[in-house]
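stage 2 :: seqdesign
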């Protein structure tokens, strides 16, 4: 079936509907920030003999268990999200979180609290996969980067709420020491009750419906969205049929197919996603779960005053994604990822040296954290954006869950426990200084990897960035997007194959009994080719109907075009004999084809 659903969704202007999506779905990060902030600040109170009398290691374990729950929830619910849809998981995952987090307020010992934290983490982990998928699929491509980064950044709005609440909840003059921390675990569930109601008005992703054979429902939802837009006085131009995507319904994607897609077709993107998620997770979880211990043990800040110092820290984290987010759509993904990851790593290294020298106090330490995480927060948000947009739609939820799980296991679950151990009783700054240097180096490495392996996905349709597995044929793509796909189209009796990966265009074409293989870097900076004998089963099969044209003026040359009419302005020819390629000055985007006799 042919569908214009993706093109229709991407050509929409910004409307009240998109605000509804952000408010209804983006609250998940607010709840996560609230949960982690509450757990982090109450850790110092829970060490008191009048509460649960935990050790410093136990406090670190609380953070690790919550993160491990997020890992399990992401893996479990991520697959279900891709199988049954995004919307059905909204209420289910949020409901699990509400019950488990509320129950944590009734904890009577460490083990009961650990169980509640694990289940609450599962609910939030499931939220990450379903909601990141839905937001990317519902928001127009022109705004996707800034919206996704800003929504992920709202995590810190929750952290700010938690920090402000802790000032009063942990003040023994306001609440008894064994009561205030329990109330803290009820804040998120109370807010979540309103969100469950709000999410009922958010539709299922039309893109997901399209790939699962529910085209009529997908079209109906898009019709309703467009009607909302028109009711606001906006004129919508019709979408040309040339932008239609032909798809066939698919069921659940097997793990074998997922592995082939991610490791076979997209190995560089998989490496990119893994490295970005791991590096930011290590830095964030290491510092965020232990900042209260640092303030308490090295700067002698009382438990009920820690929230005051953390509030500006959280504000810096919130402002970063909001102020820097638009640049990811204009300046570009790779440049901004390198800048935010690298900048935060360098600043952390500088602060580590000053910390070791004893040159910082609680105020200046907090000021450094504010600036560091102004950049790191935007970078960390871009990691979630990256893994959610560079893989095919059919496995988007699972891709998010895999990279989230790997990052938390490799960089998140262990980090709080490790850094809590480095802090110890606060008698030596050396171990923690070393930990800060390691965290800085890891963050810088993440930015460098993104520079070399990143995808220029800014303002590109999701289907242009990664062709859906269910696609039978696709429309011509716009300029300047990276494809890492292996596609097949039946054209005039021949099978046309394109393989474009890692920012390069690779192609093979048989001409006059010889085969040409070539590589063209996307920015047009260089090209190379190699001629070898044409293998059996191949033929000199170049003709106008396929969009690949024989140049009669050149013996053994082929002329390939992104359009079937080479005069349309986008063209490229490769000279087999000379072994070099040229591109016409007006060409903005070129496809290189391999014709194999069907």
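stage 2 :: out
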């Amino acid at each position: 079936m042919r569908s214009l659903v993706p093109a229709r969704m991407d050509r929409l202007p910004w409307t009240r509907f998109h605000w509804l999506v952000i408010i209804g779905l983006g609250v998940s990060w607010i709840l996560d920030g609230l949960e982690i902030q509450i757990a982090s600040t109450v850790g110092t109170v829970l060490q008191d003999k009048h509460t649960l009398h935990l050790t410093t290691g136990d406090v670190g374990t609380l953070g690790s268990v919550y993160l491990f729950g997020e890992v399990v929830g992401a893996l479990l619910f991520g697959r279900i999200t891709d199988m049954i849809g995004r919307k059905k998981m909204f209420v289910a995952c949020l409901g699990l979180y509400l019950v488990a987090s509320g129950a944590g307020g009734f904890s009577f010992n460490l083990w009961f609290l650990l169980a509640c934290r694990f289940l609450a983490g599962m609910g939030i982990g499931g939220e990450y996969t379903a909601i990141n998928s839905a937001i990317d699929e519902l928001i127009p491509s022109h705004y996707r980067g800034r919206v996704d980064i800003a929504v992920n950044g709202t995590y810190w709005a929750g952290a700010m709420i938690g920090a402000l609440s802790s000032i009063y909840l942990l003040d023994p003059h306001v609440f008894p020491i064994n009561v205030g921390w329990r109330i803290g675990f009820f804040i998120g569930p109370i807010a979540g009750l309103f969100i469950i109601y709000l999410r009922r008005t958010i539709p299922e992703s039309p893109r997901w419906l399209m790939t699962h054979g529910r085209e009529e429902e997908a079209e109906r939802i898009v019709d309703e969205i467009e009607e909302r837009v028109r009711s606001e006085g906006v004129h919508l131009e019709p979408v040309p049929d040339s932008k239609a995507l032909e798809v066939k319904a698919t069921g659940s994607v097997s793990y074998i197919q997922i592995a082939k897609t991610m490791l076979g077709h997209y190995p560089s993107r998989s490496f990119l996603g893994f490295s970005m998620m791991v590096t930011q997770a290590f830095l964030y979880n290491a510092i965020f779960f232990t900042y209260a211990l640092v303030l308490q043990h090295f700067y002698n800040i009382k438990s009920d005053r820690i929230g005051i110092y953390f509030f500006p820290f959280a504000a810096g984290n919130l402002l970063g994604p909001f102020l820097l987010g638009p640049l990811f759509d204009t300046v570009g993904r790779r440049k901004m990822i390198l800048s935010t990851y690298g900048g935060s790593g360098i600043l952390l290294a500088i602060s580590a040296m000053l910390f070791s020298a004893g040159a910082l106090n609680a105020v200046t330490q907090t000021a450094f954290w504010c600036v560091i995480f102004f950049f790191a927060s935007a970078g960390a948000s871009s990691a979630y954006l990256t893994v959610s947009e560079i893989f095919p739609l059919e496995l988007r939820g699972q891709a998010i869950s895999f990279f989230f799980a790997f990052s938390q296991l490799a960089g998140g679950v262990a980090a709080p426990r490790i850094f809590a151990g480095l802090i110890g009783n606060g008698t030596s700054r050396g171990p923690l200084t070393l930990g800060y240097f390691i965290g800085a180096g890891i963050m810088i490495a993440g930015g460098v990897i993104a520079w070399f392996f990143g995808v220029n996905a800014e303002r590109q349709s999701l289907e242009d960035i990664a062709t859906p597995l269910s696609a039978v044929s696709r429309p011509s793509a716009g300029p300047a997007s990276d494809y890492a796909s292996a596609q097949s189209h039946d054209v005039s009796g021949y099978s046309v194959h394109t393989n474009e990966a890692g920012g390069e265009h690779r192609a093979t074409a048989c001409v006059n009994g010889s085969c040409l293989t070539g590589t063209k870097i996307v920015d047009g900076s260089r090209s190379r080719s190699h001629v070898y004998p044409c293998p059996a089963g191949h033929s000199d099969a170049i003709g106008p109907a396929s969009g690949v044209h024989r140049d009669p003026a050149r013996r053994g040359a082929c002329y390939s075009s992104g359009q079937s009419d080479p005069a349309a302005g986008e063209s490229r020819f490769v000279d087999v004999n000379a072994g070099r390629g040229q591109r016409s000055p007006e060409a903005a985007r070129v496809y290189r084809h391999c014709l194999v006799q069907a």
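stage 3 :: structure notes
- The CA atoms of residues 4 and 150 lie 28 Å apart.
- Residues 474-598 have pLDDT under 50 and may be disordered.
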